[in-house]
């Protein structure tokens, strides 16, 4: 059967506030749950996006196999297989994908990590739907490492999935909550490997025969997931890497809106404005990170460091604001149930084959980049910045749609991707040069002698030459899509 679930990330204080607010009926008794997750030494199940656990509660054990979708966020619809078992040893039947994944390696299964939580459960009736709401608090443990768990899961028992968001909004009105994108099994696997510093974009699952509407939804949800994962890392570490990747996630998401504009029209305009606002806040801190990485020791670096620390304070304040918290929830709901899905004039475009839509989008942005870069050395900084943004959109489109063309003209795809990446990097370096004086002036440092080395005007000519060469290589690269 399929599990339909919406996950919310909570703090312990938020969990107390929700229960105290009375938005969930009754006073449930906590149920202690202990789950053991199994895998092979080479993590064959994790590689197949499967999890296998045995959960014990009230003296009974239930074995569950789940199929994960690591590119998703918001409402998750996941196949799961459950059966009672008598002990802490997995029972593998042919009714799950596990035997086909493991083959002869089933005997190598062993415990990898455990999850112990106190669960509190409510059953709600909401807009014709029945929803199970649970709050879990506890920890995940693997050997000598552990990670706390505090989350709320809303599982649809019956009725329309949109009702999950109605309940989520009542909870969000009672206490600060955030869209959850990390499963308990993912938390456990993080403990048995290197701790992530930042999360890069994951490949979006796009299958043959997919519609343009479903492709957009999957792409956007993948971007939301990347942002939320890096947001949590950023708030915990206040370092440049997760800030950069959180900003990349927002750029990818905003680019997705642009790429799919022929289908979306003006739909989601308010969400786009909120994304622009959030990206702008992160962008100011990112500019200071770039400048700080180039600054030698001395008074200028100290001033940049102080400004950078203040910018990170502002980023943290924004990320914890109600506007930012609800934005990801708004986006997840809009992607599944928004006005863009109800517009009759856009039905034909939404039903269009994703591969055909992708080919036209790639051609459209390729033409823009080829046209915009013809006289690269003559462009003003602002025009070159616009070209850089178009180049990013072309690269994001190529990344988004890569699975749809995975079997096509591999040599051409490789050359096009390499040329596109190099051209974007050269434009990025030129943009950093152009932005440095503006950031220094904003900090009141432009007239200091040490600031001249950060502007690096002597680097401009070789960077322009390299960018022109990269453009020529990209312009001559053949299209690999049809």
TrEMBL record:
SMART domains: CHAD (SM00880), CYTH (SM01118). Residues 1-195 form the CYTH domain. Pfam families: CHAD (PF05235), CYTH (PF01928). Residues 209-482 form the CHAD domain. It comes from the Bacteria. Gene3D superfamilies: CHAD domain, Hypothetical Protein Pfu-838710-001. This is CHAD domain-containing protein. It comes from Paracoccus fontiphilus.
């Amino acid at each position: 059967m399929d599990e339909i679930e919406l996950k919310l990330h909570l703090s312990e204080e938020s969990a107390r506030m929700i229960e105290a607010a009375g938005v969930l009926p009754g006073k449930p008794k906590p149920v202690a749950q202990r789950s053991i997750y199994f895998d092979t030494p080479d993590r064959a199940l994790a590689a197949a996006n499967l999890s296998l656990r045995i959960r014990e509660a009230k003296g009974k054990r239930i074995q569950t196999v789940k199929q994960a979708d690591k590119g998703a966020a918001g409402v998750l619809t996941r196949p799961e297989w459950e059966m009672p078992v008598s002990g802490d040893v997995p029972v593998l039947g042919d009714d799950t994908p596990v035997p086909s994944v493991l083959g002869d390696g089933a005997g190598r299964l062993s415990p990898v990590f455990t999850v112990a939580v106190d669960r509190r459960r409510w059953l709600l009736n909401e807009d014709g739907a029945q929803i199970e709401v649970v709050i879990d608090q506890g920890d995940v443990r693997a050997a000598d490492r552990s990670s706390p768990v505090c989350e709320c899961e809303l599982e649809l028992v019956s009725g329309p999935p949109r009702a999950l968001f109605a309940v989520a909004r009542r909870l969000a009105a009672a206490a600060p909550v955030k869209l959850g994108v990390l499963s308990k099994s993912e938390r456990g696997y993080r403990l048995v490997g290197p701790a992530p510093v930042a999360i890069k974009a994951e490949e979006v699952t796009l299958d043959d025969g997919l519609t343009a509407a479903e492709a957009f939804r999957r792409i956007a949800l993948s971007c939301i997931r990347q942002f939320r994962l890096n947001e949590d890392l950023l708030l915990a570490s206040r370092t440049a890497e997760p800030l950069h990747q959180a900003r990349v996630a927002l750029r990818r998401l905003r680019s997705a809106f642009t790429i799919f504009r022929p289908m979306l029209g003006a739909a989601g305009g308010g969400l786009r404005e909120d994304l622009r606002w959030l990206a702008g806040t992160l962008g100011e801190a990112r500019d200071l990170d770039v400048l700080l990485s180039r600054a030698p020791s001395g008074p200028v670096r100290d001033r940049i460091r102080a400004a950078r620390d203040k910018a990170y304070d502002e980023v943290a304040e924004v990320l914890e604001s109600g506007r930012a918290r609800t934005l990801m929830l708004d986006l997840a709901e809009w992607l599944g149930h928004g006005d863009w899905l109800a517009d009759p004039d856009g039905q034909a475009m939404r039903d269009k084959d994703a591969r055909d839509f992708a080919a036209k989008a790639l051609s459209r942005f390729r033409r823009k980049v080829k046209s915009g870069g013809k006289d690269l050395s003559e462009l003003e900084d602002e025009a070159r910045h616009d070209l850089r943004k178009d180049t990013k959109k072309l690269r994001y489109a190529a990344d988004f749609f890569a699975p749809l063309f995975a079997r096509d003209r591999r040599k051409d795809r490789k050359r096009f991707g390499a040329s596109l990446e190099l051209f974007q990097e050269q434009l990025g370096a030129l943009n950093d040069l152009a932005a440095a004086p503006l950031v220094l002036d904003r900090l009141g440092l432009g007239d200091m002698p040490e600031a001249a080395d950060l502007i690096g005007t002597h680097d401009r000519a070789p960077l322009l030459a390299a960018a022109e060469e990269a453009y020529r290589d990209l312009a001559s690269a053949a299209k690999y899509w049809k």
